[in-house]
Specification:
heterodimer, A: 112 residues, five-stranded mixed sheet, four-stranded antiparallel sheet, globular, B: mainly beta, 11 strands, 0% helix, 50% strand
Chain lengths: 112, 113
């Protein structure tokens, strides 16, 4: 199972773009990269998932370089409501059944 | 469509007492999971069930038992609660495996005194 490393915390201001990077040097060929967001007193919520290059949805973009040893979650024009903990997960849904780990995540604080 | 529901929302136990946390999903998902989250930390997997009738240990299974009652319901039992089990417990489900999109319940806040 690929080990992931994220910054413990980040600060930003409203309206800025925020990029959170996750390192996963031992990612396997079949592994996908998934990001979750968690607000206080709530369960995590799925944000985005990708395998390579770039994925974009209505909430965020995920950039994955060719070697796939890292990935960057990009949040455009953040607001105060984006203050949350963000988790990066890496794994293969077929061979790593049940063996997920959320780590400690990155605490993003958006300031006015 | 309620998604994933958990009961109770809050519980206080004395050391040595037992209790069962209930989880149900109405999305016809195959896999279900129990996590615990201690203050300021990430989620740690306790047990999971890849399909109805199967269960397996996760990262921190000691002190817990689970039952996959049917496809919808997955319960977590503490036989003899200890203060170290004070935590927030989350149940989740996925259509396929754990790296599919996980849908989480609202959590149960458990305090053991």
């Amino acid at each position: 199972l690929a080990k992931t490393t994220q910054p413990i915390s980040m600060d930003s201001y409203e309206g800025q773009e925020v990029n959170i990077t996750c390192s996963h040097n031992n990612i396997a060929t079949n592994d996908y990269i998934t990001w979750y967001q968690q607000f206080p007193s709530q369960g995590p919520r799925f944000i985005i998932q990708g395998y390579k290059t770039k994925v974009t949805n209505e909430v965020a973009s995920l950039f994955i370089p060719a070697d796939r040893k890292s990935s960057t979650l990009s949040l455009p024009r953040v607001s105060l409501s984006d203050t949350a903990v963000y988790y990066c997960l890496v794994g293969d849904t077929f061979t790593n059944a049940g063996k997920s780990t959320f780590g400690d995540g990155t605490t993003l604080t958006v300031k006015p | 469509n309620a998604g994933v529901t958990q009961t109770p929302k809050f519980q206080v136990l004395k050391t040595g007492q037992s209790m069962t946390l209930q989880c149900a999903q109405d999305m016809n998902h195959n896999s279900m999971y129990w996590y615990r989250q201690d203050p300021g930390m990430g989620l740690r997997l306790i047990y999971y069930s890849a399909s109805e009738g199967t269960t397996d240990k996760g990262e921190v299974p000691n002190g817990y038992n689970v039952s996959r009652l049917n496809k919808r319901e997955f319960s977590l039992r503490l036989e003899s609660a200890a203060p170290s089990q004070t935590s927030v417990y989350f149940c989740a489900s996925t259509l396929g495996g754990v790296f599919d999109e996980q849908y989480f319940g609202p959590g149960t806040r458990l305090t053991v005194t």
